[in-house]
Predict the 3D structure of the following.
Amino acid sequence: MPAPGRVYVLRIWHESGEQPTGPVWRAMIREGTLGERRYFARVDECLDHLYSELVRR
């Protein structure tokens, strides 16, 4: 019997505001449709978080 899966909502957007380093990508992830939203200043941070969640369970 396969292990139950999980659903994550991942949103990535581009901000071109007044950043000294130029435009940046931001990210938000949420488990399922009702889970707590977590925001990340960098996409790499979001992917690290997602990887740690998948390894932990």
